[in-house]
Amino acid sequence: MKKTKREMPEMNTSSLPDLIFSFLFFIMMVTTMREVTLKVRFTKPSGTELEKLEKKSAVSFIYVGPPSDRALEEKYGKNTQIQLNDRYADPKEIRDFIYQERQSMENQADQVVSIKADVKTQMGYITDIKEVLRRSNALKINYSATRRK
Amino acid sequence: MAKGKKKVPGLNTSSTADISFMLLIFFLVTTSMDTDMGLSRRLPQPPEDEEVKQEMKIKDRNLMEVRINSAGELYIKDGRGAGLCPEFNDNPEVLRDRAKEFIKNEIGSPLLPELLPTDIGGDIGVKYVTADHVISVQTDRGTPYEKYFAVQNELVAAYNELRDEISKQLYHRAFLDLDAEHRDMIRKIYPQKISEAEPKNYGGDK
């Protein structure tokens, strides 16, 4: 028998980088940068009448919930905290926060404030926030939630 | 001169794949894909003068009160009666149905909001609608946010369902598929009137 020396041809991988690059661009398109590091823990309520937040650039976020880890818990207690940007804040500071956010927006009239609050939060906190928002003329609000079937 | 046939060696690109992989993984880690969803609400205009606190007189039959106390219990009061609504916890749709009946007042009941002739415009013209009805949501400082959200969700759902029903009846299309002009007309038939009073303390702080 003749021993033919047949080698498996190597696969051409020269287009692999292109493939991955196109995948990379896809990911860059459809995702958004994480806005802040969360310092509060929250489980969103669930609802049926939800709307998508359309213009991401016009949205400011307010996070409400208990501290997210033990170190913070020891420092600030287990009570509900309000987080603006990267730190805990007082309801009074929301006004400045809203004005600052508004300055950096193109369409200031479209400003939406998304309240991401934990289900167990007491309404007192939410009402305070709403009152400040109202006085700062940020009237469009959105209670962040997950869809329920 | 000797024609040196020196070929330029090709650049070794075998590591491009690794580099782009790393970029890809970096983006996967730092970005999030979650689309933000939520219940959109509009706050009332800020009061012009702190001192002027107008007490609007609302007829009893036009008002539906939904109170949530610090234990998360619902108390509903309208022309048909008042009382706690313990079923809400298991079946939030109770509130939705009750609100729908209230807003619609289909049979023209004297216990439900009065039907006023209102000019809707367009091809509808004058229609009897409960233009003056108000649904007032009152919370306590200790009310759990979850319950408040559930109530808001059901009330918004009641309006959305009513608008959908009438738009299917009149135009055979869902409310959201209508154009802006017709949507405004439908909104006039069922104007959204959810008022939120300052929280009160029912039965003390918790």
How are the SSEs ordered, and which strands pair?
The complex is a heterodimer of chains A (149) and B (206).
Chain A lengths: L15 H15 L1 E2 L12 E2 L3 E2 L6 E7 L4 H7 L4 E4 L2 E3 L4 H10 L8 E6 L5 H13 L4 E5 L1 E2 L2
Parallel strand pairs in A: 2-9, 4-7, 7-8
Antiparallel strand pairs in A: 4-5, 5-6
Chain B lengths: L15 H15 E2 L4 E6 L20 E6 L5 E5 L2 E4 L8 H12 L11 E4 L6 E4 L4 E6 L5 H27 L8 H10 L4 E3 L10
Parallel strand pairs in B: 3-8, 8-9
Antiparallel strand pairs in B: 3-4, 4-5, 6-7
Helix pairs in contact in B: 2-3
Which descriptors apply to this entry?
heterodimer; A: 149 residues; alpha/beta; 4 helices; elongated; B: alpha/beta; 5-stranded mixed sheet; two-stranded antiparallel sheet; disordered C terminus
Report on this model:
- The complex is a heterodimer of chains A (149) and B (206).
- With 149 residues, chain A is α/β, with parallel strands linked by helices.
- Helix content of chain A is 30%, strand content 22%.
- In chain A, strands 6-5-4-7-8 form a 5-stranded mixed β-sheet, with helices on one face. A two-stranded parallel sheet of chain A has the order 2-9.
- Chain A is elongated.
- The mean pLDDT of chain A is 84.
- In chain B, 27% of the residues are buried.
- Chain B has a domain at 60-196.
- Chain B has helices spanning 16-30, 93-104, 145-171, 180-189; strands spanning 31-32, 37-42, 63-68, 74-78, 81-84, 116-119, 126-129, 134-139, 194-196.
- Helix content of chain B is 31%, strand content 19%.
